[in-house]
Amino acid sequence: MLYLGRFMGKGKGVQFNCFSPPVMLATLITESLLTIYTVWRYKMTVLGRLAVFTLIALAAFQLSEYHVCTGYGFSAEQWSRIGFVMITTLPPLGIHVLHVLAGKPRRRLVVASYATMAAFIVFFLTYRAAFIGHKCTGNYVIFQMGPWAGGAYGLYYYGWLLTALLLGWNWANELMRKASKVARRKLETVRGLMIGYLVFLIPTALANSVKPSTRAGIPSIMCGFAVLFALILVFYILPRSGERKHDSGDLTKAQS
Asked: Residue 211 contacts by C-beta under 8 Å, 6 or more apart in sequence?
């Protein structure tokens, strides 16, 4: 079986170990509340919309996993397709957020990432054999994909995550050489996004280095830390770069 914790493998599936259904439900509720708070607190600028879409995608994947385990609503196959469509949007959304935070108007990579995203979404929605098995073990959900599909999806997912990290590192270095307040703000948020990415990737690298046999459980680590990325986005990045609806400064301007 191929796990998403590896780029490529000889197995026949992609496995996400996302804990028990109660944990999935708690994560879903947390990410849903963060979405509601973001909509209430911030204006729906480009960054605001991207943040909301990201939170919805994270919550929807947890919802899909929960229903695969509990059997409510659609079939396990249908929930699997919905879940994978949702998480497929995350790498391009991250690339787009990075461009917005760094103030980069030329966004060819953003377009390219959305194009690859669209291709995988069409695949998951239309290809009958996209998933060859579905299983809830009680502690995690197994989504089994064909060997070539799982490998290609791993390259897509981790490829764009790595691209974002490299871009963020380069742009952060550029911003460090500038002394303006705007540049410092951009630097803080770009670094914040990089930390959010590392929340996913550092546990993966450490687990593979210290104990290679834990590769089968790496997706469990990544899914468990997704809510931390959501918290970083809402409580660190948006307060520095988002436009607030209920800012006292805005109210003062309006009254004057």
From this structure: none
